[in-house]
Each structure stands twice: as C-alpha cells, then as structure tokens.
Amino acid sequence: MEKENATLLTEFVLTGLIHQPLWKIPLFLVFLVIYLLTIVGNVGLIMLIWTDPHLHSPMYLFLGSLAFVDASISSIVVPKMLLNVFDKSKLISLFECMLQFFSFNISATTECFLLAAMAYDRYVAICKPLLYPVVMTNDLCVCLIVLSFVGGIIHALIHEGFLLRLTFCNSNMIHHFYCDIISLLKISCTDTSLNYLIVFIFSGSIQVFTISTILVSYAIILFTILKKKSDKGIKKAFSTCGAHLLSVSLYYGPLLFMYVHPASQQVDDKDMIDSLFYTVIIPVLNPIIYSFRNKQVIDSLAKLLQRNI
User: Fold this and answer.
1) Residue 171, SS3 per DSSP
2) Which domain, by its residues, includes 42?
3) At what angle do helices 94-127 and 231-259 cross, to 10 degrees?
4) What transmembrane ranges does the database entry give (predicted)?
C-alpha cells in the first residue's frame, strides 16, 4: 500500500530561500538584476570570442566554454527561483525536477573538468612556452572541451539512474530553491544509503581528480617561475593565472562542502547559501574576473565598440 501511495507523488514544493513577505520584492529585483548581468556578461563574452579571430586560441576557447556553462547553470536554476518568489504553490513536477537536476549536474560537472583543462593550458603556456603551439593545438583544446561535456553527461546519467529507483512518500516539500540531489534524498521513503555512497564516490572522485590536476599544474608553474627569478616573468605569470585561481577557489569551496562532507539528514540552510553562491554569484563574477585584467579581451571589446559606435 505504501508503494502504491508513493507512486501518486508526482509534484514537489520548492520552499525556496525567501520566507518573509517583506523581503520578496527587494530580493526578487536583486536576483533578477544578477541574472540579467550573468546572461549579458557570459553571452557577450562568448560572442566577443566568436567574432574576434585574435581570440581563437585555446585559452579563449576554454573561456568561452566556461562562459556557456556558467550561463547554463544560472538559467537552469534562477528563472524557476524567481517565478516561485510570487507563486504561492511553488510546485514543480517530478519530471521537471528530474530534468532540472540532470541539466544542472551536467553543467556543474563540466565546469569542474573545464577548470582542470584550463589549469593544464596555463601549465603548458608558462612552463613550455616554445612548445605551446605544438602541444596545445586547437584540436586538442576542442577534444578536451568535448570530453568535459561527455564527462558531465555520464556523471549526470549515473545519478539520474539511481534517483529513478527511489520513491517519494515521506514528504513532497523540498527545502531548497532548486531540485538538488541531497534535498531529494532527504525526502525519499526508499533506503538512500546507496545513493549517498554514489554521490560521495563519484562527486568526490571528480573533485579530487580535477583539484589534483589544478594543484599539480600550479605547483609546477610556481616552481618554474621562482626558478627563473625574473620579476617581470613572475608578474606576468601571476597576472595570467590569477583570474583562474580566484575562479577555482570560489567554485570548489561550496561544492566540496555540499557533496563530499558526510551527509546530514537534517535540513541545513547553509547548504542553500552554498548553492546560491555557485549557482547565482559565481556565474556573474566569472566574466568580470576573466575580463577585468585581460588586456586582449579589453582591447577586443574596445575595437568592437568603436566599430559599432
């Protein structure tokens, strides 16, 4: 009888972040502005890289792919969150919920692999500058980008497959602003021990692999630039790598806390704050971080504006 009742549960309620009516309009406007800036910044960066032949190099191909993923993450989560601010029911169907999680998982995992690939690109550029055009070709760059997306799709399929075995009958209240896997596991009436183990193993392995790649790449870069003892070379290296290091630090902190630490069965508002950081804040910051001190991007933007104005 319990199983039959569980199959009737086809809708969930996303409780969201905003519970005080007084804060609804101000926070709605803040998140709306952030989302619009995210789309304009990331799509603008993609178009700039696409239209300027001088930016058709591996570094900027990776950057354009990262911008696409950031825009996707924000678009998967934020519009539904904004609609739910004034929607009293805050309902989302089981199909929509699974689709949202699947799409988000692809984008989030792909970003991890892209950040690792970008670190390798910086390693080759700084440590093997003469071999860079030979080693880091556009073909290899495209191959790494495709593999990043394939890895994201496979990872999402694994979790989606294990989610589909679950039934939901304890509650239809998801204490989150989007369909996150941990929140879904907390309301399942099926034993979720295997799912938690899969999350820990696969999400943990991906993060350990990508973080290790980044750390090893930058450790070699640091050793190389210190060995040269050139102030100009050190400044140039830190200028080249600084944006990527900042982006990595901002992105991996919340992810490590969310998916690798031992899972709690209690609702944790801090989980939602961490999720808000890498679904809303980081996508709007990345175009600024990567463009602000990048002379080539600024020059390209200036030329584009001059042509149109």
Assistant:
1) coil
2) 2-308
3) 160
4) 25-48, 60-78, 98-118, 130-158, 196-225, 237-260, 272-292
